[in-house]
What does this fold into?
Amino acid sequence: MLTGSAMAQRVQIPATAPSTFAAPSQAPSAWGTQAGAYPAQGAVGAVGAVPPPAFDAYAPGVATPYGAPVGSPYTYTPPAGAAAPYSAAPYSAAPYSGAPAYTPYTPAPSAPGYGGWGNETAPYGWEKGTYGFESSPGTTVRFQQFLRQVRGEHTLLMGDGSSDAFELNRMELTSTLTFPVAGNIEAPLLVTPGFAFNWLDGPRSAEANVPGTVYDAYLDTAWYPRINTALGAELGFRTGVWSDFSNLDSDSLRLMGRGLGVLTVSPQMDFLLGVVYLDRIRVKMLPAGGVRWRPTPEWDLYLVFPNPKIRKRLQSVGGADWWWYLAAEYGGGSWTVERTAPAPRNDRFDYNDIRFVLGFEWESASQLRGHAEVGYVFDRELVFDSNSPERFEPDETIMFRLGLGF
It folds into this structure.
């Protein structure tokens, strides 16, 4: 209201009509950050109208490939019989652990990720999934979540004290930091320092004895770039010291890596092919590859050797989202040690096994997450660099694993 000494004049500013595609809160996307503000859009269904920005087509809560949340006023309906670009949602260029990821999977992923944080063949750095945390409410939140993560996990491989038993208790602590590459927070460089205690019980045989405790101290890096809408990669590198710290030599320093190419044929399906380098005594390298398929927002099938995982969303309970999963792992590790029998010597040994796992995982709105697993462990072996003995085969056993991260 403008007021003068002798008269008053009312000035009315006309209201600006909202855009048909007013910008909703941005959903997380595996395909890249939607940069800048949303442009004004044409009328819904009008021929020649610009389609709304694409969102992650397999993220929970997405109704159509156009990315409109269920029940949202922003739902976009293309005109009947319209040709491209209306026939398919465009997705722009935009991790394997991480997986991230729960590596989807964690990991995910896993990555998660997939196969647990302590598994050397799992996606590096991810808990829930290869391409990120689907349940995160947005890109900014996901970046903040990845900026600093602290995780702890305990794994128990049971032993019965017999001459053919080998028990392992493993406690691992890690923290993940992210560093955007060229300003892209959708595919950051993940840097994860970690430390693990491994308490061993057995073998009872004097020829196959190992120390009671060995350690892992490592630095892990992972990167999951997208070259374009069809091509990407899962890259990881890990180095550190694996030893009982009584015998430290050049073999204590291990170099491990992971490299897979990713061919994306649709927002729901990827094909992966590559290798995992383990730097163990007997198993230096493993082929890696398979398919990842997300037929619905509730299902995530990561059928990729050597750490496949099938994951199904359950429901929300007490403010937390729950999933169940079936997974397989190639587990184990390699350490330099000082052995005391039958004579003192410096040596190196590998522990290798195969694991089938049933697990449950959950994530709260505050990003507190955890998992619980039970597994069957078989094809177990200890391999010694000195060939004394050449190989020891422990009994099959049961595995229990618990993890918590925030």
In short: The chain has one helix and 17 strands. The longest strand covers residues 320-339.
